[in-house]
Amino acid sequence: MEKFDTVIIGSGPGGYVAAVRCAQLGQKTAIIEKRATLGGTCLNVGCIPSKALLDSSEHFEHALHGAAAHGIEIGQVKLDLKKMLARKDKVVSEVCNGVEFLMKKNKVTHYHGFGKLLGNQKIEIALESGKKETIEAKNIILATGSVPISVPGMETDGKSIITSDEAINLPSVPKHLVIIGAGVIGLELGSVWRRLGAKVTVIELMPRLFGTADKQISSLAQRTYTAQGIEFLFEHKVQSIDKKGKNVTVKAQNKAGEEVKIEGDVVLVAVGRKPYTENLGLEQAGVKLNNRGRIEVDRHTFATSASGIYAIGDVIEGPMLAHRAEDEGIALAENLAGQKGHVNYDAIPWIVYTWPEVAWVGKGEEELKEAGIEYTVGRSLFRANARAKAMEENEGQVKILADKKTDRILGVYIFGPRASDMIAEIAVAVEFGASAEDIARSVHAHPTLSEVIRDAAQNACGWAIHQ
After folding, report:
1. Cα separation of 158 and 173, whole Å?
2. Is the dihedral of CA 315, 320, 322, 326 positive or negative?
3. CA spacing 20 to 30 A to 416: which of 118, 191, 223, 375?
4. How many C-beta atoms lie closer than 10 Å to residue 334's C-beta?
5. Whole-angstrom distance, CA of residue 365 vs CA of residue 324
């Protein structure tokens, strides 16, 4: 029986990063993955393919509507969806192959099969060949990720009633795409197909976007998405989905209790994701779940209720974010090596890759008010920024919330171009306990979009220059 120091089940961002860090720290490491390629949901059918399509669809929309403002006249613009999807697949393949390279470089043993806990630190692997192999590990890390939630009455068929897995591979542009759920997945994939020509309607149970995030920024984003052509039906509870021929009808109940029917040719069920914990042998190994079906862990050590078994990422409590899982993988690997791994959950960015993008770190105004924390607000608009003007990207703003007494940054929201890149500055600032004044007095190159962050910080300090 092959024995390892650490074995990771699942090769998504949390799993493969944990494997690399364990190997770097001198542990004999193995990783088990049921997919044909490494990278988990994120790289294969989630984050990476969706971003590839988002970028391609942005280019398409810019050619149609944005290039003329720059003095670029383009003739007839045609969509080659087959080629666009092929490009997406190429990006996915290259990224997944990159993970495979990292495993080989760091001498991590890769098992292609389904891993199941047997107890006593043993794992049974149902290999692709049909054979079974048992290995043993001093430490076992569960990083099995998540899968789309299946709701009774919203059963999918993979063709006209689909999940996000199929939404990245539609063979043609829907005439009317109906999306159930206004979360990140629904908004991003809705943006892709809207740009490519689909009518998009989003049905959402909650009264607004982004859950507990800052309400003002949520409202700004919603207004923009609506102006772009996405229709929102908030506070609507879906009752059923009926398929008849080529049409699909969604029946929902609005806030007043009235029945509303929405007809489309494709329905995307994007009501969220749930941890993947089935058939892993958790009960046999003594691993307990909480009342939400997630694996219970000590939030500092990531230890489960079973000795020598740990869990990270989507299978434990917390936001289902790839970069959060990566950080947990690094922290856990360092803990197992006797170091002091740590994750600062207050410094984890949230991003919605629509256009303009939305990104934030920390708390919004509503959360601060509820907690009774006094704060100051600093704002700056992209339309006042020279680089944004040069890019013809004038929409959006940066909002900084700082503690009224200490000036420490409590939350920053960015709605605007390249917010996903700009938010990294804020994550670093929060990690180091920076104040609004620290950012206000830090030189930001001119002309850059990042100057909007500095302008907002100066505004929070009461001496904005460009406002």
Report:
1. 15
2. negative
3. 375
4. 17
5. 23
CA distances to 100, 148, 164, 169, 189 from 49, in Å: 18, 16, 11, 9, 10
Question: Is the Cα torsion angle 202, 206, 208, 212 positive or negative in sign?
Answer: negative
Active-site residue, 323 included:
no
On the CB side of 163, CA atoms within 13 Å amount to 16
**Per-residue pLDDT tens digits of the chain, which is 467 residues long:** 999 999 999 999 999 999 999 999 999 999 999 999 999 999 999 999 999 999 999 999 999 999 999 999 999 999 999 999 999 999 999 999 999 999 999 999 999 999 999 999 999 999 988 999 999 999 999 999 999 998 888 899 999 999 999 999 999 999 999 999 999 999 999 999 999 999 999 999 999 999 889 999 999 999 999 999 999 999 999 999 999 999 999 999 999 999 999 999 999 999 999 999 999 999 999 999 999 999 999 999 999 999 999 999 999 999 999 999 999 999 999 999 999 999 999 999 999 999 999 999 999 999 999 999 999 999 999 999 999 999 999 999 999 999 999 999 999 999 999 999 999 999 999 999 999 999 999 999 999 999 999 999 999 999 999 98
DSSP 447: S
Amino acid of residue 36: A
From the list 70, 444, 446, 466, the catalytic residue is 446
DSSP state of 295: B
d(CA 379, CA 401): 9
Distance CA 204, CA 194 (A): 18
Residue 38: how many CB atoms within 10 A of its CB?
A: 27
Inter-residue contact 426 to 409 (CB < 8 Å): yes
Cα separation, 153 vs 347, in Å, equals: 38
Q: Give the C-alpha separation, 414 to 385, whole Å.
A: 14
Distance of CA 185 to the CA centre of its chain: 8
Enter the DSSP assignment of 318: S
Kindly report each contact of residues 338-342 with a partner whose C-beta sits within 8 Å and lies 24 or more positions away, as own/partner: 339/25, 342/300
- Rounded CA separation 101/120 (Å): 31
Neighbouring residues of 68: CB distance < 8 A, sequence distance ≥ 6: 74
